[in-house]
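Supplementary Methods, section 5.1.

A reviewer requested that the exact input to the structure prediction be made available. We therefore reproduce it here, unchanged from the version used in the analyses.
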Amino acid sequence: MSSAVEVSVIIVNYKTCELLRNCLRSVFEQTKDISFEVIVSDNGSEDGSVEMVRNEFPQVVLVENKANLGFGAANNRGLNVAKGEFVFYLNSDTLLLNNAIKGFCDYWKGHESENLGALGCNLVDAEGTLTESHGVFPENGKLIKAMMHHLAAFAVKNAMKFLHMDISKLRPVPVYKKFVGDVDFVIGADLFVKKSELARFDENFFLYYEETDMQWRMAKIGLKRRLIDGPRVMHLVRGGRGKMDDVLRYGSFSIIQSEISKVRYTKKNLSKSVSFALKVMILLHWLSPYIFKNTRQYFGVMRSV
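The structure derived from this sequence is encoded token-by-token as follows.
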């Protein structure tokens, strides 16, 4: 086997020590017959993550960012030191269930003539059920329609919460089907790409939409994004209904960051007027008395997007 590194596995961590430990174990236990390195880019965790990596996985390249730079920026710090021909961006809340890294690498090398830009696989959740693995590029009309529907639904849920009515069953449970073939974009939980400038994220996206933006750039130059059969990866956190109140969850950090990134993505890649309309509608629902204590600190951020 060549001594050159074939794949650099880059894992961003922010206060997920136990998840990270299990993820790293799965990578080293499952990955065989391929030259690889693992890079953990830590965003200033204070939960013992850095010490755990140093003590239990001394072979891991540790990048200490000292602050929470966001998902894309932290991945870029890992990319800066990566030595592999390929890069596998992997969430800390994942587990490899087979020799997935070699599977991705072998597939790419066997399909070099097909203008590949990114690979992923059909993810499963902790129960082994298929979960979100890919997405469709946002479109202006669909974004506006979805946001108007959301505003109306959110107003109804606020009213029901005020009246102490049960709204727990109003949130639909998504059902995902297995898909193999070309997609608009592979989600960032397991994203296999060739190391190049195209593998770099736009750091203006703090959280969410960064992988969508990357693969939008790939699409514009004719590179394919594809889900393949073979690699098996479990994504533990994404896709769960969770126990948070269906109104209060819209004041959570992750939802707020997703909405900021949605506006940023729309302004950058689609339409400034549509991004402005989205911004206004999002700010309106941020005024909800139930989530305003969380959203108020982000009004200035949203206005500047």
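The chain has a mean pLDDT of 94. These observations are discussed further in the main text.
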